[in-house]
Specification:
By secondary structure, this protein is mainly alpha-helical. The chain has one domain. The chain is 76% helix and 0% strand. The chain is built from 13 helices and no strands. Helix 4 packs across helix 7. The longest helix is centred in the C-terminal third of the chain and has 37 residues. The two termini are 13 Å apart. Pfam families: Acyl_transf_3.
């Protein structure tokens, strides 16, 4: 399994999960703060999730393109594709969902009334995500992205009797444009009073965010079509990514751009800019050569990244916050809690990966076709 991995994608996955975890680490020092450095660090956690979205689209889009090239365009091939995706994503998700339920029962808290919605991933399909197992918001977006566009793509194969890569491009572009209509509706029908309102009611809602994954579809198509160009200009791409991303956030800071005052910017421009910046990292990272030491670190973080993402916040960070009054602790004590947080996160993720996730993946690769 390790020999099939692409080192550059492991690097991207490691960067994404590191940004998420580092952003969560700040909550062990400051629960509420106006410090711009801390706030920007927390913003990088959100960027880490967007990087995951683009990576997912890149990988899934690449698999679909391979299916088209090899003639695997029947509905039975689509079912096989879904089976492999579900065996990758659903077991960990439902395991951690159960663990979150068990934790609430142990603490004596009431279970959320919307708990059943977590099974079909409908808890944030059009509404803000409930305040329970909050990491699940991004999983809902990914699951519906995997369902909707691949189904429409294979339906187009059946209807038009064509199996060309350009059909992949056309269907992807149509989906992105169609989803844009929901953003327009949000802009004209929503009153936002804070960043939190926009984040929970827009950034973390399925209908408004599936396009982030479909931009990953476009990325893999463009990089495959113009491979030589991106190989020759990979340094320019990463330079543009850093300039655009950094410049955008400097403008936000300098002009105090907030969702409640500049909603149009945050609905129509900010997230696409972040996604574009993430996408421009790929041409550079894909061509990285494996480092002897850091390669092992990236491999470890990459393979455990899904488990790390699912357990680090709701199960571990919130449990620490419930048992310790962060504001009353000395800096050294907060440092010890940080160490505890990281050790528990890595240990629990390792157990899930070694004894649950990896055996399921071996089963999938052995019994479910490519």
């Amino acid at each position: 399994m390790r020999s099939k991995r692409v080192y550059g994608l492991d690097v991207i996955r490691s960067i994404a999960i590191s940004l998420v975890v580092i952003s969560h680490c700040t909550f062990l020092f400051y629960t509420e703060t106006n410090n711009p450095i801390i706030l920007f660090t927390r913003t990088l956690g959100a960027v880490g999730v967007d990087l995951f979205f683009v990576l997912s689209g890149y990988l899934i889009g690449g698999l679909l393109l391979k299916n088209i090239e090899s003639g695997k365009t029947s509905f039975s091939d689509l079912i096989t594709f879904w089976k492999r995706r579900w065996l990758r994503t659903l077991p960990n998700y439902f395991l951690v969902l159960v663990l979150n339920v068990v934790l609430l029962l142990i603490l004596g808290d009431a279970l959320p009334k919307s708990l059943w919605l977590y099974i079909p991933f409908l808890q944030n399909f059009i509404n803000p995500h409930p305040d329970f197992f909050t990491e699940a918001w991004s999983l809902s977006i990914e699951e519906y992205a995997y369902l909707l566009l691949p189904f429409l793509l294979y339906l187009s194969f059946f209807m038009f009797k064509k199996q060309h890569k350009k059909l992949f491009l056309k269907v992807t572009l149509i989906m992105i444009v169609a989803l844009f209509a929901f953003k327009i509706s949000y802009y004209f029908n929503t009153h936002v009073t804070s960043y939190k309102d926009w984040s929970s009611g827009f950034r973390k809602v399925v209908l408004y965010r599936m396009d982030a994954i479909y931009f990953g579809f476009l990325l893999v198509y463009i990089m495959n079509t113009y491979a030589t160009f991106f190989k020759q200009n990979r340094k320019i791409c990463i330079s543009i990514a850093c300039t655009v991303f950094g410049g955008t956030h400097l403008l936000i800071y300098h002009y105090s751009l907030l969702p409640q005052t500049h909603l149009g910017f945050y609905v129509f421009f900010y997230l696409p800019i972040v996604v574009l910046s993430c996408a421009l990292l790929f041409p550079y990272c894909i061509q990285l050569k494996q480092h002897k030491f850091f390669g092992k670190v990236f491999y470890f973080l990459s393979t455990r990244s899904y488990a790390i993402y699912l357990v680090n916040y709701s199960l571990i960070l919130l449990s620490i916050q419930r048992n310790f009054k962060i504001e009353q602790l000395a800096f050294f004590e907060k440092g010890l809690l940080l160490l505890l947080f990281l050790v528990l996160t890595l240990s629990m993720s390792q157990m899930i990966y070694a004894f649950f996730e990896r055996p399921i993946l071996f089963y999938r690769d052995k019994h479910v076709g490519d």
